Amino acid sequence: MMKLRVEEIKEILPHREPFLMLDRVEDYVPGEYAKAVKSVSANEWFFLGHFAETKVMPGVLIVEALAQTGGIALLTLDAVRGKLAFLGRIRNARFFAPVVPGDLLELETKIDAVNGGFGTGAGIASVAGRKVAECELVFAIQDA
Known about the structure:
The protein is of the alpha+beta class. It has two helices and seven strands, in the order βαββαββββ.
């Protein structure tokens, strides 16, 4: 298993707090997949307004976390190392359950293909083994 701590993640992804959505990478194979986690804390910036009385992690940020997980899988591939992976398209995003403070968000993004300046993949987010979201992702790969 190949693991990454937050400082190693920052060497690969350009994201920084508060928009870095990964706490650690549990495993990855360059160009194939990555598995990561985010510990969802009650102190997250997005809970200030979403929603003040019933805190729920916005679905768009769950998708962002899946995209960042896919970025790890893509940007560790030798052919695209040092480049940027922009989120180019989200398809078939579905949400099954809310993500709330105290949850450990488990993220897995599998890369289907890398062709020239594009990559495609699919992500699944889970909490305690229960799927909370899924989507298909298209990445635009460009020079940094």
